[in-house]
Structures are given as C-alpha cells and as structure tokens.
Amino acid sequence: MLYPCVPGAENYLVPIEETTPDYPGANQLKMYAPANPVFNHVAEEICFEITETAAISNPKIGIEFLKKLQALGCKIALDDFGTGLSSYEYLKTLPIDILKIDGQFIKNMVDDELDLAMVKSINEIGHLMGKETIGEFVENAEILAKLNELGVDYGQGYHLHVPCSLQSLVDELQPAKVNTK
Q: CA 121, CA 143: separation in Å to the nearest integer?
C-alpha cells in the first residue's frame, strides 16, 4: 500500500507492479476493464508501477497501454526513478501521474546528506511537473517523518504495510458486509 506521508490523511493507493518489458495485450487488459466488478470498486485507488526500462522497451505500445490504464481511472507511477541514465528525459515524455523515488536514496537519507539532497531534488522536479511523489523503503517512523518534512506525497514500505495480494487488499478495502437476516 502507498500511504500519505502527511499524518492524518486518509487517501491511499494500491500499487501493482507492471515491470515486464512486454505489456499486457488486449486479453490481459480486460482484467483491468470497468466490466470487472472488483476493478470498478477500486479503480481510482490503483496505481500501476512501471519501471523506466519496461516503459521504453517498446515506447509506442508502452505509452498506449499506460494511456488506456489512465483512461480507466488508474494512476501510473514511474518506479525506481533516479537509477536510470536518462531518467529526466523519460520523465518528460512518459504519460505518468506519479514519480516513485528509488528506495536506495530513501533508506539512508536520514543519515546521508547526498541521499537527502537526491530525494529532495527528485520530489521538487516531480511537483514542478505536476506529478505526485512516492518514497519507497519507508522502514521506520524517522524516514516517514523526513518524507513528510520534504513534502513527498506517499510512502511505501514495511513501516506502513507489508506486501500482500491484490485480492487481500480488495477484501480489506471493501466495506464490511452487513448481515440482513
């Protein structure tokens, strides 16, 4: 789960990694289609994470697929940002909503001034472009507090929620069923 870095905020996103170089074809896209009742319930809370490498391996198909997911109401996050050689170039051309700051910078930023500067820089560039930001590897309250201080929008990591299946998240997010007997 991606949790807001601001204490007390209640919005969150459910990340789904789509890191393979081959994007889903028409049949796989049906899994995410509005006709799917599970999808209808949580579409606006789903965030597909795509790595820069996967997004550029076939730019025409990749951009088309990402735009289809956005049209369905999903958000798109560029995962592991800051680790690729051409990251900023792709940031300008890919249809993404969210910039996910690589955890290699996040995990040591409390003690390492250079990592802190990298996180701050990536966050500022993302916000300048109108994108939300995610800090991954949030392993403790100190990291979460620093992300909040920097204005990073969401956090992801074991301190906030352990990884789990999409179905378990859907079950967790659905309102409790009321017994009407």
A: 16
CA–CA separation, 67 and 37 (whole Å): 21
Q: Taking CA 138 as the corner, what is the angle to CA 132 and CA 140, rounded to the nearest 5 degrees? A: 140
Residue 152 in domain: yes
Task: Kindly state the tokens that stand for 74.
Answer: 């999903």
Name the DSSP class of 13: B
**How many folded domains does the chain comprise?**
1
Number of H helices, E strands in the chain: 9, 7
Closest of 128, 177, 161 to residue 13, by C-alpha: 161
Report pLDDT digits (tens) over 55-91: 667 676 677 777 877 887 778 888 877 766 456 777 7
Structural domain of 13 = 3-173
Q: State the pTM of this model.
A: 0.72
What DSSP character marks residue 178?
Answer: P
* Residues 146, 148, 153, 156, CA torsion sign: positive
Decide if 111 is inside a domain.
yes
Each residue's pLDDT tens digit, 105-159: 999 999 999 999 999 999 999 999 999 999 999 999 999 999 999 999 999 999 9
Q: What CATH number is associated with residue 97? A: 3.20.20.450
DSSP reduced 3-state for 150: helix
